[in-house]
Amino acid sequence: MKIVSIIGARPQFIKASPVSMEIRKNGLDEIIVHTGQHFDANMSNIFFDQMKIPEPDYNLGINSLSHGAMTGRMLEEIEKVLIVEKPDWVIVYGDTNSTLAGSLAAKKMHLKVAHIEAGLRSFNMNMPEEINRILTDRVSDILFCPTQTSVDNLLLERYDKFGSKIVNCGDVMLDAALMYKDMDKKPADDIPNKFILTTIHREENTVDKKRLRAIYDALSVISEETPIIIPTHPRTRIMLSELNSSSQNDRIKLISPVGYLEMLYLIQKCSLIITDSGGLQKESYFFEKPCVTIRDETEWTELVRIGSNIVAGTDVDNILNAYGQMKDRKINFSYKLFGLGNAAQIIVNEILVEKRIL
Ligand code: UDP
């Protein structure tokens, strides 16, 4: 049995690590295609090294283009790979342009597609990620859902009628977190004893200067109480320097993007997380840290429901208010919202079962 895995962006490398390991454990043949969407060493190579992901068999080197151009070129190049490799299954992850191009290329060739992290919805069609995930779900044969909410989203959209199989396998990011948490590594930068961990990278928060300005202003106020560490996405660093904010406050420390092991160190040591990242919202729960989400909505609504996360938007007062509520909140972190940390095993077993049925 041959599987082609399509990856291209940082969170996909993290998600692919436990799955790829499980594929190899079962003696299956995996061809890894890196679309090239993320290409800086600290956004790409470091994850392959740290998380023992095999070198990609193909690197398509497609990046820094508009959404249409990027997705179109990926579609064309992935199709060429699939024609050569003739896999039994194509695995795609999450909600990036690489996900959409991979699933579309595969399905047009009548290949079986497995979507890992299916069923997530923000209900905001202005997000490129929302478009990518809806279209990918629609053409996938197995929809591997990380949470009950994501299963419910698909059922509400009548996916039970589409002939695709819905599997609640839990979250592969929990597998990764459990696998690597004890190998965490202190970043090279000076890290204070008490700090807040922040990441900002969503298009809506970086392209819109007003939103980025408001986020930075709120962080400035919060940092008077507790210093803030920001592993800074390349796009955010450029936008922040255009705002001329990065040098204004030395209690907000912008460091380079870090590897997964350094990130696990920061997550485990921080007192609270402020983020617009999907992955980091979940990791805040895995490592029992309160979270403030600087977006207008979240796909991970269960965290809001149980009170470990507040969706604050990007209004200064709302962020400060959310921070004030979260910093000393007593939270029950004992719910198994993201499965048991064996998602990769369930995924590979399901693919093997499907193979036997066919
Ligand atoms: N992450 C990392 N280094 C960083 C910033 C983030 O390893 O400098 C990890 C983070 O812990 C999480 C994943 O990258 O596991 C999230 O990726 P990102 O925020 O880029 O994407 P999203 O999850 O929002 O799709």
Instruction: Note the quaternary state here.
Output: single chain
Cα-atom radius of gyration = 20 Å
Strand content: 15-25%
- Count every helix, treating DSSP H or I runs of 4 or more residues as helices: 15
Described by the principal axes of the CA atoms, the overall outline is globular
Compressed to H and E, one letter per element, the order equals: EHEHEHEHEHEHEHEHHEHEHEHEHEHH
Helix content: 40-55%
pLDDT < 50 stretches: none
| β-strand number | 13
Q: Can you tell me the CATH superfamily of the largest domain?
A: Glycogen Phosphorylase B
| Secondary structural class | alpha/beta
Sheet with the most strands?
7 strands, parallel
Placed side by side, the strands forming the largest sheet appear as: 3-2-1-4-5-6-7
Give the CATH level 1 class of the largest domain.
Answer: Alpha Beta
Task: Give the rounded overall mean pLDDT.
Answer: 96
Domain unit count: 2
Termini Cα gap: 12 Å
Ligands, deduplicated:
uridine-5'-diphosphate
- Could you please say which CATH topology of the largest domain applies here? Rossmann fold
CATH architecture of the largest domain: 3-Layer(aba) Sandwich
Notable characteristics:
358 residues; Rossmann fold; 2 domains; six-stranded parallel beta sheet; 15% strand
Could you characterize what this model shows?
The chain is of the alpha/beta class and 358 residues long. It has 2 domains: 2-171 and 339-357, Glycogen Phosphorylase B (Rossmann fold); 182-326, Rossmann fold (3-Layer(aba) Sandwich), CATH 3.40.50. It is built from 15 helices and 13 strands. It has helices at residues 10-25, 45-50, 67-85, 97-108, 128-139, 148-156, 172-180, 203-206, 209-223, 234-243, 260-269, 278-286, 301-305, 316-326, 343-357; strands at residues 2-7, 29-34, 58-59, 89-93, 112-116, 142-145, 165-168, 196-199, 228-231, 252-255, 272-275, 291-293, 309-311. The chain has a 7-stranded parallel beta sheet with strand order 3-2-1-4-5-6-7, with helices on both faces. Helix 12 (278-286) links the parallel strand 11 (272-275) and strand 12. It is globular and about 60 Å long. The mean pLDDT is 96. Uridine-5'-diphosphate binds at residues 10-11, 14, 199, 201, 231, 257-258, 260, 263, 277-280, 283.
